[in-house]
């Protein structure tokens, strides 16, 4: 390699005009190769902690908002399905909108992304707290006003948390220029995020689980009538949700402070030479026409939808289909703890066998356990075993998308070296599609329960409701996972391609950071690559 570089230097010197060679009396020195840019463990931990707020709040909303609206806030199934779908659809829409605004932002002393994270945090926690507050509206106005209350603050919170999460996701590309360091930081991040879901599940589940919404059964022939047993008990349940919201909001603030103090954005040398960022819609057109990105999104769209269906209906499934009303929060905790402990194993697996192989093995491992849940009768011990095993697949679903997306962005930068500022577009539209899928899953789930005649605040449900929940948690996710894995066959970036991109990008960075580098030189090098 050194011999080749020396030959190229000699050839280039022979082609240069004499005047240029005489411009300096000092002999040309061979540049030492740059040392690998390493992040300290402290840097990685501070970066990783920033992923916890989104998972804390997302876990609480994903697992508990549906049952909260139906059984605590006493919203009817149809309006509840509208709240869940519109809230997630609005959340999905705000991702590219925030991505657009970030792409137009200029670099400040704090960076380009960090100001969004800092200033959105206080407003987000206020909106989050109000989601879990049951207002006391005048008689006769509770239904319409309650519907508008939850819709407004759900959409407002999702907008504000997007202003936190999109820049945080894009921050992956600015903490280091080294692929291996970014992958390592991503593994730290995924571990903390899964730990965040564990904490969110423990806080929300254990506090709320101690004060379940009351229900009452009265046999009148073959009919079951569901009524509120005690207004006092319902008030205690509402206060339990508020207490959990207050604790989660406090952790949100602490994590945001640690992230802001412990992480510094690093600007790419070749990006710094660009006069301004690419126009948003021009960048969007290039991003959405980038084949590896489209194929990655398509694959994870189906697999994410599968896990979101399980997440959104798991509490109702455990409560009514399996009959574990007082155990579902502990089952959630078992899943998330299992996922937390297996994140490092998946990080080792993907570095040893490749990311595409990890996708096939990790995500497909959920299928046998979903089949077992569909076929078995209610058994608490078997359910705990299945929950722990399912956590292994959940860990892979957490880690792999965010580990593979930087590879796609690197591939894009090689093909379009003069397109700075596109990172937020990549991350925001990936989150857009997954959140839109989440909105569809929650809306369809709640609407399906409405068609199956779900009984609000019921201690039990009709058989058609139990069957609907079983299909939403087992068969539908299995079909979606299989479709997603088929689409991953088309994803072109394997380990060999990743290594080639890494070498080419390093050459581009070295050329851009050298003293004699010009914009023309960088463009020529990228064209050759």
TrEMBL record:
<feature type="transmembrane region" description="Helical">
    <location>
        <begin position="467"/>
        <end position="491"/>
    </location>
</feature>
<dbReference type="GO" id="GO:0005886">
    <property type="term" value="C:plasma membrane"/>
</dbReference>
<feature type="transmembrane region" description="Helical">
    <location>
        <begin position="45"/>
        <end position="69"/>
    </location>
</feature>
<dbReference type="GO" id="GO:0150172">
    <property type="term" value="P:regulation of phosphatidylcholine metabolic process"/>
</dbReference>
<dbReference type="GO" id="GO:1990379">
    <property type="term" value="P:lipid transport across blood-brain barrier"/>
</dbReference>
<dbReference type="GO" id="GO:0051978">
    <property type="term" value="F:lysophospholipid:sodium symporter activity"/>
</dbReference>
<dbReference type="GO" id="GO:0005324">
    <property type="term" value="F:long-chain fatty acid transmembrane transporter activity"/>
</dbReference>
<keyword id="KW-0472">Membrane</keyword>
<feature type="transmembrane region" description="Helical">
    <location>
        <begin position="357"/>
        <end position="375"/>
    </location>
</feature>
<keyword id="KW-0812">Transmembrane</keyword>
<feature type="transmembrane region" description="Helical">
    <location>
        <begin position="381"/>
        <end position="405"/>
    </location>
</feature>
<keyword id="KW-1015">Disulfide bond</keyword>
<keyword id="KW-0769">Symport</keyword>
<feature type="transmembrane region" description="Helical">
    <location>
        <begin position="147"/>
        <end position="168"/>
    </location>
</feature>
<protein>
    <recommendedName>
        <fullName>Sodium-dependent lysophosphatidylcholine symporter 1</fullName>
    </recommendedName>
</protein>
<dbReference type="GO" id="GO:0008643">
    <property type="term" value="P:carbohydrate transport"/>
</dbReference>
<keyword id="KW-0813">Transport</keyword>
<dbReference type="GO" id="GO:0140329">
    <property type="term" value="P:lysophospholipid translocation"/>
</dbReference>
<dbReference type="GO" id="GO:0005789">
    <property type="term" value="C:endoplasmic reticulum membrane"/>
</dbReference>
<comment type="similarity">
    <text>Belongs to the major facilitator superfamily.</text>
</comment>
<keyword id="KW-0445">Lipid transport</keyword>
<keyword id="KW-1133">Transmembrane helix</keyword>
<feature type="transmembrane region" description="Helical">
    <location>
        <begin position="240"/>
        <end position="263"/>
    </location>
</feature>
<feature type="transmembrane region" description="Helical">
    <location>
        <begin position="425"/>
        <end position="447"/>
    </location>
</feature>
<feature type="transmembrane region" description="Helical">
    <location>
        <begin position="330"/>
        <end position="350"/>
    </location>
</feature>
<feature type="transmembrane region" description="Helical">
    <location>
        <begin position="113"/>
        <end position="135"/>
    </location>
</feature>
<keyword id="KW-0256">Endoplasmic reticulum</keyword>
<dbReference type="InterPro" id="IPR036259">
    <property type="entry name" value="MFS_trans_sf"/>
</dbReference>
<keyword id="KW-0325">Glycoprotein</keyword>
<keyword id="KW-1003">Cell membrane</keyword>
<dbReference type="GO" id="GO:0007420">
    <property type="term" value="P:brain development"/>
</dbReference>
<dbReference type="InterPro" id="IPR039672">
    <property type="entry name" value="MFS_2"/>
</dbReference>
<dbReference type="Pfam" id="PF13347">
    <property type="entry name" value="MFS_2"/>
</dbReference>
<feature type="transmembrane region" description="Helical">
    <location>
        <begin position="293"/>
        <end position="310"/>
    </location>
</feature>
């Amino acid at each position: 390699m050194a011999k080749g570089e020396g030959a190229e230097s000699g050839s280039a010197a022979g082609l240069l005009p004499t005047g240029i060679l005489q411009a300096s009396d000092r002999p040309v020195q061979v540049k030492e190769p740059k040392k690998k840019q390493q992040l300290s463990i402290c840097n990685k931990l501070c970066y990783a902690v920033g992923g916890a707020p989104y998972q804390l709040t997302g876990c609480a909303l994903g697992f508990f908002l549906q049952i909260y609206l139906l059984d605590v806030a006493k919203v009817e199934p149809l309006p509840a399905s509208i709240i869940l779908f519109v809230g997630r659809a609005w959340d999905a829409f705000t991702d590219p909108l925030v991505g657009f605004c970030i792409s137009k932002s200029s670099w400040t002393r704090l960076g380009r992304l960090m100001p969004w994270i800092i200033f959105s945090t206080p407003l987000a926690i206020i909106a989050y707290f109000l989601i879990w507050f049951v207002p006391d509206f005048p008689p006769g106005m509770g239904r319409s006003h309650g519907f508008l209350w939850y819709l407004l603050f759900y959409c407002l919170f999702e907008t504000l948390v997007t202003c936190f999460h999109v820049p945080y996701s894009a921050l992956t590309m600015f903490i280091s220029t080294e692929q291996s360091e970014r992958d390592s930081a991503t593994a730290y991040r995924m571990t903390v995020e899964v730990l965040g879901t564990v904490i969110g599940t423990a806080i929300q589940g254990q506090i709320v689980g101690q004060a379940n919404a009351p229900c009452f059964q009265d046999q009148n022939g073959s009919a079951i009538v569901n009524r509120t047993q005690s207004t006092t008990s319902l008030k205690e349940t509402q206060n339990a949700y508020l207490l959990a919201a207050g604790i989660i909001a406090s952790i949100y603030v602490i994590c945001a402070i640690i992230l802001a103090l412990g992480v510094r954005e690093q600007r790419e040398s070749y990006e710094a030479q660009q006069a301004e960022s690419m126009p948003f819609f021009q960048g969007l057109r290039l991003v959405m026409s980038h084949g590896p990105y489209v194929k990655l999104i398509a694959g994870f769209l189906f697999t994410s939808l599968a896990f979101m269906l399980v997440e959104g209906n798991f509490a109702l499934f455990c409560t009514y289909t399996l009959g574990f009303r007082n155990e579902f929060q502990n089952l959630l905790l078992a899943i998330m703890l299992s996922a937390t402990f297996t994140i490092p194993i998946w990080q080792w697996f993907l570095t040893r066998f490749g990311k595409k192989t990890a996708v096939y093995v990790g995500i497909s491992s959920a299928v046998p356990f979903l089949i077992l849940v569909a076929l078995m009768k209610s058994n608490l011990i078997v359910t705990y075993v299945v929950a722990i095993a399912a956590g292994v697949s959940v860990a892979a679903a957490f880690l792999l998308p965010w580990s593979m997306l930087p590879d796609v962005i690197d591939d894009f930068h090689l093909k379009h070296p003069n397109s700075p500022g596109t990172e937020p577009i990549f991350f925001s539209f990936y989150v857009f599609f997954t959140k839109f899928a989440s909105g569809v899953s929650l809306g369809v789930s709640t609407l399906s329960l409405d068609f199956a005649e779900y009984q609000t605040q019921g201690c039990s449900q009709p058989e058609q409701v139990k069957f609907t929940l079983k299909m939403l948690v087992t068969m539908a996710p299995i079909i979606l996972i299989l479709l997603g894995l088929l689409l991953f066959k088309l994803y072109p970036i394997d380990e060999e391609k990743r290594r080639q991109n890494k070498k080419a990008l390093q050459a581009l960075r070295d050329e851009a950071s050298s003293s004699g580098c010009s914009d023309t030189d960088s463009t020529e090098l990228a064209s050759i690559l």
